[in-house]
Amino acid sequence: MIICNGDILACGSQFSLNEVEVVTATIDLESVRSFRSSPSRGLQSQHAQKFPRINLKVRLSKRVEDHDYQIKGQSEPIDLKYHAPEEEIALGGACWLWDYLRRCHAAGFFIPLSGGIDSCATSVMVFSMCRLVVSAIEEGNEQVLQDARKIAAETDDSGWVPATPQELMNRIFCTTYMGSKNSSSDTRNRAKDLAHDIGAYHVDIDIDTVTTAIVNVFFSWSNWMPRFKSAGGSFAENLALQNIQARSRMVLAYLFAQLLPTFRGRRGGGSLLVLGSATLCLSSRKTCLNPEHLLKEGMLTPKPTQNVDEALRGYLTKYDYMGITYAELSTFGRLRKNEKLGPWGAYCKLLSTWGSQKSAENSKDQPPSPRQIAEKTKFFFTKYAINRHKMTVLTPSLHMEQYSPDDNRFDLRPFLYPGFDWAYAKIDRDVERREEAESGTQKEKEEDDLD
Asked: In terms of CB atoms within 10 Å, which end of the chain has fewer, N or C?
């Protein structure tokens, strides 16, 4: 960026695949001197250190009388382009993915599509990457073209040039829908339609044989068949059956990522990088890398899907699954990370902020009571402490703001926590005190009404 007297004369691209970008502008040094002496009665100019002028027979530029201002005058100010948050996510994530891919020498990317918004967002980010690549090639960037041919395993004398982002996507991006008897046709069709629109190589499989075989191993030993909670099973049974499906999908994802390039006849075989689709507050999934880590939860408006419990048929939202909303997760995460608050501090902060914010969002809803805020606070910190250790092996992720639970670089804190008994007891005492005060006030009001 080149700035003269507060005016932007030139600016490089914020997101680009170019290795080097040179920005030039023509400025008038005399205008800088006059600008410094004009404001505030020339105080800046008067208090500036005086430097002697020495005339030499060497010139760094043309003499004023020799310069043709009709040919090349001072550069005119330009308007700075501000990208919307959605554009920054698409372009920033695209540049990061391309740089990661070309440096690790993988054959491309792989992601399991669930039909929900999380995996969809990651896939669209890859498509944005391919759009940038094709655009750079059309502009004549030979380095990007060489990288694209290398990733696609083209020969040295190949003349292949991707004409569209979809053509490039089909060469380097594979997706799969891993359905089960609990999956819905809607999620299956959404995954298929998305893969078709962005040009990805799509695989549709069912994992029931895998999950059934795993359960049968346990049954053959115990002669006891675990059941989902909706079928009368316990919490432990329900969680175990859900985890079997999730972990089976992870293992199958790495299997397909390793074998698909060879199956498709790619020269030299190779393997694909498995992409994660966990948003910032749900970043404990184990994948090769996770570009969606930069997303704030409020940016994902459609309902994510879990496809785990046979009674819910793929429509289980993460609010029901975790007992807390995306917006609440983001609020708690920022209080913990940015403001360095524990359970008691977060509870005190939310007593004032949540009541006014939530009532302003929807006047029909009553602001949460102190007890509801206390329960949410204790729920979050209890689950956080249980799962904190998972961040020690967090997948390499893209970070574009200060709020991040990345253990190694952004969020240094203990990974094993003691109990929060003292803080929880203090919260409970405060809730009881507030409820007693509220009860006394209500009783006095009722007596006044009787009078």
From this structure: C
